[in-house]
Amino acid sequence: MWLLLLAAGLLGALGVAGQDFKVQESLLLKSLGLRAKPSPRAPAPVPPLLWKMFRRRTFPLAAEKKPADACWVDEFSVPGNIIRVFPDQGGFIHREEPESWVCLQKRLYFNFSALEDAEELTMAQLQIRFSHSSYQAPGLGPPFELSLYKASQMALRGMSTHAYSRNLLVEQSFLHLHKSFLFNLTEVAKSWRDSGRNLGLILEIASPRAGVLCSRLDSFLDVSLLVITLAPKHCKGGRAKRSSHYVPAGVSNICKPRRLYVSFGDIGWENWIIAPQGYLANYCLGECPFPLTEELNSTNHAILQTMVHSLDPEGTPQPCCVPVRLSPISILYYDNDDNVVLRHYEDMVVDECGCR
Ligand SMILES: *[C@@H]1O[C@H](CO)[C@@H](O)[C@H](O)[C@H]1NC(C)=O
Ligand SMILES: *[C@@H]1O[C@H](CO)[C@@H](O)[C@H](O)[C@H]1NC(C)=O
Ligand SMILES: *[C@@H]1O[C@H](CO)[C@@H](O)[C@H](O)[C@H]1NC(C)=O
Q1: Where does ligand 2 bind, in terms of residues with CB under 6 Å?
Q2: Closest C-alpha to 217, from 97, 138, 151, 136
Q3: Is pLDDT of 108 > 90?
Q4: 278-280 and 260-263: which strand pairing?
């Protein structure tokens, strides 16, 4: 039988329960690494790569025998359990003395305030995409030159407002605009965190054959930074993927996992959790009767407690039916800054119960 968590209905019926719900909710959000319940204002579309990674974690192919490690990102071969995509928040730089061959100059800025201090940054990859097909026929020589600089100093007094001192990171020529460029910015992103100073990057695109396209380049540009971090608090080393579906056996009152489907819509989280819409969380319920058998996954202490209980039922309670094995799930959501995040959360599904 399926139990539905109808928290919304309960909220309406009982004011006190509503207060309890709020307290519990804020504690849970905190343990999920969020300041408050996110309410995305201008959520960006979910990058296809994150969808792909989410699906791979949630519905692993039968062929993939290797258990998914909660703290390893296979797609990039780096440690990590949180994958964020930061949208670029930098502005365009309008220069006072425009050089005709510079199509665009833009500051790139990614706000890392969502990263917690304890998280270790293991990878950062910049993606620059142009949402427009190429104007330039191939074979005409490289018409565009892309340069990426790390901004290292703010404007000094007397200099023009947008002057930065900058270090060249990459220089690349390209023919086609519809291309997507990926740059490994792991070292740069680490330095932003380590120094506590993140002045962002400067992107410059120039073309010796500047034309109409050049002047409109800014409207085709889409930049984001994919960042992988490891929050060790939420890692318990590699563990097996949850045993896919729990089917309760028989109707008995003995301690065992019961089926509980939690719908994120029912608890009012549907506008910030992108996927899944809900999941099979389960819970433990049942008696821990005398004599405690091995199947009940008891501790020596629980067996002893059961013995004492059988002698003194009033003074000593029976052991409790509690989760003894839990497994993780992956959640795709918008955080408090509207970044798209794919995160692996430990201990979200009850797999086994025991008398403890
Ligand atoms: C980064 O985001 C935080 C939280 O949303 C905000 O308080 C802060 O002002 C932002 N920093 C910049 C430089 O935009
Ligand atoms: C990215 O750069 C870091 C540091 O320079 C390096 O360790 C890592 O292997 C690079 N990753 C890829 C995918 O090239
Ligand atoms: C106790 O653990 C075993 C495997 O270790 C499991 O098969 C069994 O279902 C567990 N018992 C309960 C009550 O969950």
Answers
A1: 184, 186-187
A2: 136
A3: yes
A4: antiparallel
CA dist 204 and 92 (Å) reads: 10
Q: Whose CA is nearest to atom 5 of ligand 2?
A: 187
| Interval 89-98 mean pLDDT | 76
Residue type at position 346? E
Could you tell me the distance, in angstroms and rounded to a whole number, from the CA of residue 331 to the centre of ligand 1? Answer: 24
Residue 102 in 3-state DSSP?
strand
Residue with tokens 């005409």: 140
- The amino acid at 158: G
Least confident of 54-58, 84-88, 108-112, 226-230: 54-58
Answer yes or no: are the C-beta atoms of 303 and 318 closer than 8 Å.
no
pLDDT tens, 165-214?
888 999 988 877 667 889 999 999 999 998 888 999 999 988 876 566 66
For residue 282, which ligand has an atom nearest its CA? 3
Q: Kindly report the pTM of this predicted structure.
A: 0.79
- DSSP letter for 250, please: S
